[in-house]
Each structure stands twice: as structure tokens, then as C-alpha cells.
């Protein structure tokens, strides 16, 4: 019986080549997209799950309120780990500190600036499950002067030689013995490193003064019996014990919280230099997969239904020979599943070919294991689900035919079937218009972001990181060497460049000495205003003409002045006191216009610019047309200041664009998938147009004999097919407006959702649909009436 069903199903596929190819093409595209998205989601939710003890590992974070908004910071100070182990020995098994760093490593005459360095506790590799190919995880970092390299890093330094026991030098002054080689870190880890150094190579302050100095990730491993909620309940008392006095002095109240390791990846508001994902993106991808698969299922349903008349005699004969309705339903659903299975096999082949391009599009490498069972469970599930959903309605329509009418050839599909088919076309093109609207809104918002006035000049600005001791100790020599050089307009040293991280600190001010307000901070020299092109709206800039500016003056932005309750002019002369650092009162000598020193997704926050030595970057403003010689001069000055380190730089405008790379990739992917959705829908529309023109072939001949023009016949055929498309467009427009209006609200600075976006989406969809059916209608209208009427 099953063999008979399979044989008949295969013959039907081969007999109706056009319809079979349309269905297979649509399903193959849709299933390929679904597999791509499934692999993306599988990788997103597999991050950090490879750690054996991931269910018991938690990362600490501090939580605090700023102007009614809850903020999180994952950096804590060095003493937390030891204090937690001492205070909760019955709950916590281990605690590990990790500090990402950037260091120079030297072997012989070769040096590399390594940005992927972790300073960590000695049990890092026994705490986490990063496998070592050489060395023992329990003892690899036991020696304070030990280091573990990843395989690719070891190969870079030692080639094919055995690195174990070899000595490499860190920052030209710390010799480290290689005691282990780790496998390269997999992409599905939020921690990404090339080198791990035992943090004990240098002393650390563990006195009470060290508690506010946050600079470490701290992870805790709970004991088997520990209830995480019990530990969470004990943390407020822990914070009061060690940080209560400091918090009251600073006017801040922090909570200590724990995040389960598998959830760290989706903790995207933590401002830390590790990989993070976004659950909203996962939801968008799942929705796209479901919508595209639905479009392909609609194709199959519609084309199978319109072919029902052609198979009516087969159905009638089977019923006369004793076939039951259940037999026919199984046969037709089986045909649907067979066609879906063929599409799945083709999808696997396409996926293997497209994975490199897909990884490049995503900006990451997905881990694809063809030997894991989830992938094949997914394929089998898709085959059965799509086969059943797409074949269910046609199967019940065909099995309900009456044998007598079927065998006499008098069977016609009723108005109900026609309405259902048109409703499905409405859904198809409504989805397509919705996806196109989404793509156009994202394109418009990103264009707005990339071209809006952010309040500072990011063009022709070179950024050099102060990421080693040499350049930090000689940063003033580096700056003075460049100042006055041809082609260089200005040079400024600061704690953070726009788009980077700006520390939030507590401040007091005169008149409200009992209150603490939060503001972002920038520690810089006197050249920050001309280098960034900031506008002073009240008062003056820092100036060497005022010797006390270096110790007693600050600049604030308009938002900070407003938070203090002043206009820019009124703020001048008032003092602010940084309660997070030195508690020194400094006078406001100038107010700069607000500028977007963070992403345009964030509102402009109060900012206080203070002369200070906490310099982490150097910005060099270059004159137009002088970039090449200026880079040569900057490189030479860097070599004089830090001869042991390679000269590395980037551009401020590139940093700005990097803030929106994820949104740009989402836009590209959504645009690609929107195009595929239209393609699948148009394949189905082409099939329906072919059926409609064939069914009305004699009617067209009669109309031509009676004098109807080709134009009128084309309009007749096209209007019948375009009506459901126009209805789908009308339904999709308000839905698209609602969804995309909420999306742009993620940006503090956003463009409007313009009417022309919807007009463009509707026009594009209708134009593509018209091109799809127009050619078929035109050929039918131009056919000779003799061909259609010669049998009459």
C-alpha cells in the first residue's frame, strides 16, 4: 500500500513538472531560510552551555538607580571574590576573577600587541570548561608567572615547536612561562581570549580603600546544594558590611546581583567588552522564518487546490474501486510530505553552499555540526509539519469529490474554494509588503543616524589608544611632538572618545549639598573642545591663561546645567564636587552644547568634563587632504614615545559607524529575506496565473471573436489576480506602521515613519506582481481564437 502511494505520488510530481518545480522552488527557499535562522537561534542559545558546571556558575553585577532608571555594571573590585568565599563558605565553592586587558608580548625579536589577554585567578581552567590540548587545567596557572596560550596564538609565536616550558615576555618586563595550550575559544562563548595570565604576577590592593575601584569580572560557582535565591537574599547585608560606608559617602546605593552564566550573553545592557546577543533579534528572525514558510505553504495549498479538477477523474475512479476518504487523505498528504522531503534535501545542499556567505552577513561564525541530532530532528519536524499543513486542505478538498460528477467531468470548484484561494493570496502579499515596509523603515532610520548632526566633528580624526605603560608615561611627549606639525590641527588626550564608555559618577553641587546627582564624566586636557569641534554656549573653554583651570575648573554640557536647575549662563561660577573620586570642589567655567557622546539610541546624559590624568585615548584632528603625511608623522611620534609597541590607530567616524553595525546587518538580512518572500509569493502567483489563463482559454477566444481587444482581455485577467494583492497591501500597511513605529522608538533620536515608505512598498509589490502575471495574461490574450474554439 505504502509503495503504491509513493509510486503514484512520484508519478504526479513528474507529470506536472511546472507546478512541481514551483512548489519545490518555493519550499526549498523557505526551508533554507528556516534552517539558516534555526542555526542562528541554536547558536545564540548554546552560548556558554558547553561549560560542565554552567548551571551553577553566576556572574556578579552591580545594580543602581540613576534618575529613576535602573542601570547595571558588571565590573566589581578585586576584594569581592575573597570576601564572598570567606562570608559564604557553605554556599560558594569557588570564585574566579577575570580582567580583560591589552598587552605587548615578545618572543626574541618579534613583538605582538595582544588585545585578547585575560588576567585571571589560577583556577580559571578548572572553573570553566575551556579544554587544554597541553597542560593540566588544575595546575596550568598555579605559578604566578605562568601563561596559557590558545592553539592559534601558540602557533603564531612558536610555529610547530612545543611551546610548553618556553618563556615569553609581557610588556618587556614580565617573563612568563608557557604552562598550557588551550583549544581556540569556540564562537559560542561570551568570554573570548587568546592569552590567559595568572593575575598573581602583580600585587593587588585588598584594603577597604580598594572596594570602590571596580575593574574585574567576578564569577562564583555555587555548591551543589545551594539555593541561588538564598545567596541573593544574603547579598544586601554583604554589601552593607563592606560597601555601606563608601556608598553613603558617595551618595550612591548599589545592589549586588547574580546572573546565571547561560543568561550573561543576553545581558546586553552591561557595558562590558564581551560578546552579547539580543533576544529581540532572535524574535525577529523566528518571525521572519515563520512568515516565509507560511508563504511557501500557501503556494502549495493554492496550486494543489486549483489542480484538483485535473485529478477529479482519478479520485472518482479510486472511490468507485473502493478507496475510502481516509485512504485518499493519506495519499495526498503523503504526496505533500514527499515533495517537502525533496525540498528539505535540496535545502541541506544549498545551506552547505551558502554558509560562508551567511556567516559573513551575520558578522560571526556559526557552529554547524552535521552530526548533531537537533538539526535532523528539525528537518524531520519541518518535513512533517509543512507537508501536513500545506497538504491538509487540498487533501480534504480532493477526497470530498463525488465519484459520479468526477467521472462525468462536470466537476467545478465552488465559490468557497475561490474565496479561500484569494484569501491566501491576500495573506501572502500582505506578509511581503510588511517585510518590505520593515526594510525601508530600517534603511531610512540608519541613513538618518549616519547623517544626523551629533554635535561634534568626527571626520578627519585619528584615534590612538593609550593601552600600554610606555605610551601612557610618554603621552605628553607624544602630544607635544605632534602639535604644530603641518597638517595636524589639534591633539587632545581624554578618558573616552565619543561612542565609547563614559564612567558614571556621583556629584554634589552648591545649594544642594545634601543631594547627589549622577553624571557621565570625561577627564581630558585643555584641547578637547577644539579637537571635537564642540560649541561653547556659555562661559569659556579651558585655557592655559588661567593656571587654576587644571585643578579647579570643569566644563559641563547643557543637560548637566539643566539637571542642576540652571540655564547655561546661570550655571557659570557654581561648583560641583565629584563624590566618587577626590571630593574636590571645582567651578563651572563653561557650558558646551549637548553632543551625542554615546549611541543615538541613548538620550544625551549630563556630562562633566574635568582636566585630569585618566587618559585612555588620544584624538588627533587632521586637516583635509593631509591624512597620509599626518599618519606618517603620528606613527613616527608614537615610535619615539613607545618604541617597543606597534603603532595602531583607527578613525573616529569608523567607531561611530561601528555602533550601528548590528542594525545594519539586521537591515541587510531583512531586505534579503523580504526579496525571497516576494520571490516565493510571485512563484505561486505565476502558477495561479497559468491555471487561470488555461481555465479561461475558451472564454478568451469567445471574447476575441465578439470583438474584445487584447488590452481589455489583459485588464480582465490582471484585475482578477491583482485584487487580492491590493487588499493584502491595505491590510499590511497599518500593521507595518504599528510595528515599525515601535522599532524606531528604540532610538532616542529617530526619523518619522514617512507615508512614502508605505507607498513605495505597495508600489514595488504591485509592480513585481504585475510583471509576473502580465506576461502570462498578454500571451493568453494574443493567442489565436481558432486554437481555443476549434473543438467547439
TrEMBL record:
Q: What are the UniProt keywords, alphabetically?
A: Cell membrane, Membrane, Transmembrane, Transmembrane helix
Which membrane topology describes this protein?
Multi-pass membrane protein
- Segments forming domain MacB-like periplasmic core: 20-236, 431-632
Q: Which residues cross the membrane?
A: 21-41, 280-303, 332-355, 375-401, 422-443, 669-692, 713-740, 752-773
Q: Which compartments does it reside in? A: Cell membrane
The principal location of this protein is: membrane
- Organism for this UniProt entry: Dinghuibacter silviterrae
| Domain (ABC3 transporter permease C-terminal): residue spans on this chain | 287-398, 672-779
Q: What is this protein called?
A: Putative ABC transport system permease protein
Q: What start and end residues bound the annotated signal peptide?
A: none
